[in-house]
Design brief:
alpha/beta, D-Maltodextrin-Binding Protein, domain 2, 2 domains, five-stranded mixed β-sheet, 19 helices, 12 strands, 11% strand, SBP
């Protein structure tokens, strides 16, 4: 992983950046600006790091940044229309995967970044396993073709535990799925719903996928994500996922109220101590450091295999951007050692930092868990990536499961049809 690169490589990179930024300072950029969108909370690790990157960019270029914070859902729902207009930003954060960045790339809405990657050497900063989501072929399928996005952080899903609540009931962080179910049952016996969840947005879909991954191998992931072979939605992987969630709902481990809840609802419920557990992504980590008053800790989902995760979301440059070169300069700043270390010490997962620069003990533990998944080849991407509509399709199926409108077999049959209809046809 790039985190283990030598200081010598970072030194050379820093010298190159200094030369590049020195050139940019000499250019006449009067009247120019960089229009930037992203959807990171200002207290998140990425928000903190990118705020500093904006300051450096303005100091070094003399060009102001016009930053607009847009929500994940705002960008997801409107990006294809907005970035194909004169309202397009010069650079924005966008979700990675076939159904998102890949779709826009296949439609010609994103600028290929191959030239900038070569000029700035970004490929040498990103571990090969993190480059998969940066490159898309002509059909928008990730893993090959031109570069259309650059990640500056990694991410993965994990369990968040309120350890004060565990201690209150004499419970310990579980190490197996069986132990996890025993701990959840102990909370239910005390009248406490254990898992914060949300079915109207991504968290429940990621838990569903995580359960499938406990029964899956890498070939199954390749089949599901990049269509190497047909996926059997009645097979052991997805049958186990849906049946287990159905059992957990029946047992009271997940509230039926989650059918209408958002990711923000679930996350704030964990922050407030309403639920002792939350399964979600590393993007919550920095915020929890700031906002959770009780003791808490994280752990990988209790299995020895894969988990949802990948590179982080991507910096992409719309084809309609008026300031592409400025966008490339900003991307390069976000990959500098200074910004990467700030991200890591704020609770993020940097992709181009020295581990020695991560001085916060809790943040280093987060990075080490990410390294564990990399060493396992355990980043299995996300369940909504395979088709442009599967995010909504999966959420609709899971809402049906939670509210009792669908049983596991019916849910899997419904999303199988959705999945098949969305796969690119030769």
């Amino acid at each position: 992983m790039t985190l283990r690169r030598s200081a010598g490589v970072l030194g050379i990179t820093a010298m190159s950046i200094a030369m590049l930024s020195g050139c940019s300072q000499g250019e006449d950029r009067a009247g120019e600006s960089l229009k930037l969108w992203h959807y990171e909370n200002e207290t998140s690790a990425m928000g903190i790091a990118w705020d500093r990157a904006i300051e450096i960019f303005e100091e070094e270029t003399g060009v102001p940044v016009e930053f607009e914070e847009r929500s994940f859902e705002q960008i997801r729902q409107t990006a294809s229309q907005v970035i194909n207009s004169d309202e397009a930003p010069d650079i924005l954060e966008y979700n990675k995967g076939n159904a998102t960045a890949g779709l826009l790339a296949s439609q010609g809405l994103l600028e290929p970044l191959d030239g900038a990657v070569e000029e700035y050497g970004w490929d040498s900063k990103l571990a090969e396993s993190l480059q998969t989501t940066s490159r898309y072929d002509e059909d928008g399928v990730m893993g090959s073709g031109s570069w259309y996005g650059i990640p500056t952080y990694g991410e993965f899903t994990m369990m968040y535990y309120n350890t004060e609540m565990l201690d209150e009931y004499g419970l310990e962080v579980p190490e197996t799925v069986e132990e996890l179910e025993s701990v959840m049952q102990a909370f239910v016996d005390e009248g406490v719903t254990p898992l914060a969840q949300a079915a109207s947005e991504y968290p429940l879909g990621q838990l569903w996928y995580q359960l499938a991954l406990t029964q899956a191998d890498q070939q199954w992931v390749n089949d599901f994500q990049i269509y190497e072979n047909p996926v059997d939605f009645e097979g052991p992987e997805l049958a186990y996922a849906s049946e287990t969630l159905d059992e957990w709902l029946d047992d009271g481990y997940i509230s039926e109220d989650s059918t209408g809840l958002t990711a923000e609802d679930a996350g704030t419920a964990f922050i407030n101590g309403t639920y002792p557990m939350f399964f979600s992504g590393s993007w919550w980590y920095g915020r929890f450091l700031e906002e959770v008053d009780q003791d808490w800790e994280t752990a990988l989902f209790p299995n020895e295999g894969m988990s949802p995760g990948s590179s982080g979301n991507l910096w992409v440059v719309p084809e309609a951007s008026q300031n592409k070169d400025l966008a490339y300069e900003f991307i390069d700043i976000t990959l500098r050692a200074e910004i990467q270390a700030l991200m890591g010490n704020s609770g993020g997962v940097p992709v181009a930092a020295e581990e020695a620069d991560i001085t916060d003990e809790e943040s280093l533990a987060l990075v080490e868990n990410f390294n564990t998944l990399l060493d396992r080849d355990g980043l299995a991407f996300y369940p909504d990536w395979p088709t442009p509509t599967f995010y909504d399709d999966l959420n609709a199926g899971l809402q049906g499961l939670v509210n009792g409108g669908l049983d596991p077999d019916a849910m899997n049959a419904q999303i199988a049809e959705d999945y098949e209809s969305g796969i690119p046809q030769d």
